[in-house]
Amino acid sequence: MSLAAITLVSSVLLNLFPQTPEAYGPLNFACCVKYTRKPVPFAVIKGFIEQSSIEVCRIDAIIFFTRNNKKICASVRDRWVKAALGRLRSKIAKLESKASQHMTRAGEKRVNETNTHSPWSFE
User: Fold this and answer.
1) pLDDT, mean of residues 94-116
2) How many domains does the chain have?
3) Are 29 and 57 in contact (CB under 8 A)?
4) Domain span at 45
């Protein structure tokens, strides 16, 4: 067989087998390849994730999710990005604090509402 024939048969066979997307990560994940330099108003940001260059993508980035479901790639070195991350982390801390207080209060109510004398106590 000639080299051209082998190449043709090989390419046909390789195209018959579907490529597995699992080898490349989730289908809905797209890497940031450049940063936006235009600051995004904090009011439109609803969340973020961090992209690391040591994983799948080539650059380190912060990916902001906006209220209208857009993804905005930004550099963590930019001042506006640092400010937005600080505000988001502050909001998360407040929510965690409220959730912790709510759980504690709910636990206190349950203890107060139940009989404090256990059938297994030796009093």
Assistant:
1) 66
2) 1
3) no
4) 20-108
